[in-house]
Amino acid sequence: MSSERSAIILAAGLGTRMKSTKHKVLHELLGRTLLGHVLRSTKSLDLDRRIVVIGAAADQVTAHLEAQAPDVETVLQAEQLGTGHAVRIALEAVPDLTGTVVVACGDAPLLRPETLSRLVEAHEKAGNAATVLTAVVDDPHGLGRIVRSEDGAVLRNVEHRDAEAEELAIREINSGTYAFDVAVLREQLAKITTANDQGEEYLTDVLELTREAGRPVGAVVCEDPTEVLGCNDRAQLAELRRILRERINTDLMRSGVTIEDPATTWIDATVKVGPDVLIRPGCQLKGATAVDSGSEIGPDTTLTDTIVGADAAVVRSHADQATVGKGAKVGPYAHLRPASKLAEGSKVGAFAETKNAEIGAGAKIPHLSYIGDAAVGAGANIGCGVIVANYSGESKQRTEVGAGAFISCNSTLVAPVKVDDGAYVAAGSTITEDVAPGELAIARARQTNKQGWVAERLAGTAVDEAARRAIAERREIGE
Ligand code: UD1
Ligand code: CA
After folding, report:
1. For residue 1, pLDDT beyond 60
2. Does the Cβ of 107 fall within 6 Å of ligand 1?
3. Mean pLDDT, the chain, as a whole number?
């Protein structure tokens, strides 16, 4: 027997019930498309080839595959004439395929790689020609039923719409995932007919045909019936997302992550979280996000493609393509936009926004700031309300704040400009020229006080009365 292994993934049907211009298998589920999850599970099987059968919205699916899984081959099924037809077309396109072929559906994303391995290993070990993955479910409505003999041997699959009353009572269903001996599958697919309620070529008929041809047919029962759930509409998509969320959260908790409220914590399958991380309620961790050990995230924080170092804290904040260094503090209410790089021990606090900005080790931007297209040196202090005017209306310009520099409250740094190491900017300044090391820059109008102005202009008003009272009191005490 050849040891070659491959997979055929069926994804030609559009999935009309999604009511979407997007192909069903391209809908997103915690960090990957439905198809992406299936591809990920099959990848772990160490397959020689993976073939995806495409049809409806073929250009969308092809573009997705080219971007995400360039090693995958595609075969076009121009008309969707049934699952058997789809596999037949695929096998015709790869006449040299031998060994074991796994057939799976592109819209069943929860199948664990371990289950697929178990299917393939059981199939090969038993020397089966066909092995179907089944599950025992509470509600088998609409699914194919597995008909077994009295001694438990798999006889055939009957589709819901073709089933007799006693067959409808069967709760063991066909998952739509199988392992086949390629050569036998080719022979049997040549025999299938369209004599069923839908007038389609059913792949499921191969089970009975294979048995009738005297070749062994078996079944592997999937212990967790949620693994075989498919997705036909958006309500089911939400249900799959809930199940996957629980699975991801449980795995993370078992690996040493504290998740205070798993029901409101949404972590993509692609995210990495280290031990002793504390995730408070209401967080979303997405894409290529990774959080190192001992950090605290949340509550109510969204991190997308963001790297958080060890022992950092990100509280009630939003970050996209940012890097938060070891021990850094972010939030509450901070917005880290793409290419924000916070070094070790730095702080970006309440209502501060950063973009394309390197914040040096220990530097602080504690409140109400915008720092964009800028570098802030180690240990620098950015006072409350400091903003960088980085946009000329035409182009973005850079600002540099040196190590240990001190920018006092409510100053504007008009880029391009550099405030050097150890320089000082007085509160309320508008800085348009470079400040050298150790210099103080004051760039604001000088204050003038006009005596008697209120009495002259605002006589009889409440302000005037307050002024008069204060002046009289001070006279009495001889000030
Ligand atoms: C199929 C099985 C059923 C099983 C169920 C599990 C058949 C006849 N029935 O039913 O026993 O319980 O899956 O979910 O196989 N597809 C193509 N080309 C086609 C038709 C379908 O690529 O011509 C693809 C679809 O895009 C989908 C998959 O095959 O990804 C399954 O097709 P679908 O029509 O959903 O089959 P079910 O009726 O669900
Ligand atoms: Ca289906």
Report:
1. no
2. yes
3. 97
Sign of dihedral through CA atoms 371, 377, 378, 382?
negative
Tokens found for residue 53:
């059968």
197 and 273, same domain (yes or no): no
Residue 318 has pLDDT above 60, yes or no: yes
* Same domain as 160, residue 177: yes
Same domain, 179 and 284: no
Would you say 187 and 193 are in contact if contact means Cβ atoms under 8 Å apart?
A: no
Contact 16, 232 (CB under 8 A): no
CB 236 within 8 A of CB 21: no
| Ligand with the closest atom to the CA of 222 | 1
Rounded distance between C-alpha atoms, residue 53 and residue 113, angstroms: 20
Let me know if residue 455 belongs to a domain.
yes
User: Could you confirm whether 335 is annotated as catalytic?
Assistant: no
Asked whether the beta carbons of 306 and 330 are under 8 A apart, the reply is no
Ligand 1 pocket, mutate which of 35, 79, 105 (most atoms under 8 A from CB): 105
d(CA 156, CA 195): 15
Taking only the tens place, the pLDDT of each residue in 355-391 is 999 999 999 999 999 999 999 999 999 999 999 999 9
Specify whether 327 is located in the same domain as 204. no
Strand 412-414 relative to strand 387-389, pairing: parallel
Asked if residue 424 has pLDDT above 50, the reply is yes
Task: Determine the atom of ligand 1 nearest the C-alpha atom of 56.
Answer: 26
Report the C-alpha dihedral over residues 144, 168, 154, 186, rounded to 10 degrees: -30
Ligand 1 within 6 A of 277 CB? no
Strand order in 440-441's β-sheet? Answer: 258-259, 278-279, 296-297, 313-314, 329-330, 347-350, 364-367, 381-382, 406-407, 424-425, 440-441
